[in-house]
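S.,

Sequence below, as promised.
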Amino acid sequence: MLVMNRLVPEMIVSDLARSLQFYCGVLGFGIEYQRPEHLFAFLSFHGSQLMLEQDDLEESAWRVGPLEAPFGRGMNLSIKCPDAQALITRLEAAGHRLRKPLEECWYRSNDLQFGERNFLVPDPDGYLLRFAEDLGTKAV
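The prediction came back faster than expected:
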């Protein structure tokens, strides 16, 4: 039985089949379940979860404004991954360009620094995804 995270982003996409090819075919997300009649899919990736639903172009309380490319302006999704370079290799082989190359970053939280190797890539609708490989912690 699927245990849903306490926060699961649901993103409206322009073409669910294209998005599933990107998320599942290229990045390696798994489909937990689908509702094809609603053009909906619930995906997971190493403990991260997200929902995709194809825009039906009808008036909806779920849409706060017109959808214009790139979608998701002002937000990025940070997704933990075990091997950032392996994902980059898969993305490049599939013809996807990174928005920001792989870099090592350290972020302070009180007396500790948390390290990660991360990069940014837009999905087919322009939602920004930041994949982050954990590098552990060290003292400030």
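The first helix runs from residue 16 to 26.

Coffee later?
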